[in-house]
């Protein structure tokens, strides 16, 4: 099972809950990138730009086992090769959807997310990505609900 969605949609939190609920291991793509590169995410962006980060993200994704619950990073769908990999994994792809103001409030002060700058640029990213999340996912859930409701909804949809 793969979780996708914008920054702040709760992918990591929901992956942990689903993992506990289903007795399955979880993997967090951002964490795996940090482990394999030995750099924090803002360091990768500073040294290699977003392009460098996307290439690392793709390489890590390609090497991951398929049977885990996978929490991705919010921009994974913007790189066509990574999007294709996700779809080829032949797993349910769950899109955690929330409105922009809710997401922005959750992420605005996070220093660990290099793409969170001024509100307008984050809004533009959100708008550019909406269709990508929808066309990549097999299931869409409302990420503004309580975590328990989200998990229930995902379980029912399987
Ligand atoms: C990104 C989202 C981040 C992380 C990186 C880029 C994005 O993950 O991969 O900062 O492009 O939206 P989260 O969605 O877990 O914050």
Automatic annotation (TrEMBL):
Its EC number is 2.7.1.71. It is found in: Cytoplasm. One of its GO terms (molecular function) is kinase activity. Binds 1 Mg(2+) ion per subunit. Pathway: Metabolic intermediate biosynthesis; chorismate biosynthesis; chorismate from D-erythrose 4-phosphate and phosphoenolpyruvate: step 5/7. Mg(2+) binds at residue 12. Its cofactor is Mg(2+). Keywords: Amino-acid biosynthesis, Aromatic amino acid biosynthesis, ATP-binding, Cytoplasm, Kinase, Magnesium, Metal-binding, Nucleotide-binding, Transferase. Substrate binds at residues 30, 54, 74, 129. The keyword Lipid metabolism does not apply. ATP binds at residues 8-13, 113. Pfam families: SKI. It catalyses: shikimate + ATP = 3-phosphoshikimate + ADP + H(+). HAMAP family: Shikimate_kinase. Monomer. Belongs to the shikimate kinase family. Catalyzes the specific phosphorylation of the 3-hydroxyl group of shikimic acid using ATP as a cosubstrate. This is Shikimate kinase. The lineage of its organism: Bacteria, Bacillati, Bacillota, Bacilli, Bacillales. The gene is aroK.
């Amino acid at each position: 099972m793969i979780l996708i969605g914008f920054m702040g949609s709760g992918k990591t939190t929901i992956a942990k809950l689903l993992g506990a609920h289903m007795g399955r291991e979880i993997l967090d793509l951002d964490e795996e990138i940090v482990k394999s590169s030995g750099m924090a995410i803002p360091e990768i962006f500073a040294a290699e730009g977003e392009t460098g980060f996307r290439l690392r993200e793709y390489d890590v994704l390609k090497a991951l086992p398929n049977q885990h619950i996978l929490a991705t990073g919010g921009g994974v769908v913007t790189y066509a090769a990574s999007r294709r990999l996700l779809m080829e994994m032949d797993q349910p792809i769950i899109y955690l959807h929330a409105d922009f103001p809710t997401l922005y409030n959750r992420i605005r002060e996070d220093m660990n997310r290099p793409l969170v700058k001024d509100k307008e640029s984050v809004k533009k990213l959100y708008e550019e990505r909406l269709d990508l999340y929808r066309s990549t996912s097999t299931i869409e859930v409302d990420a503004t609900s309580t975590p328990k409701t989200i998990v229930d909804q995902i379980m029912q949809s399987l």
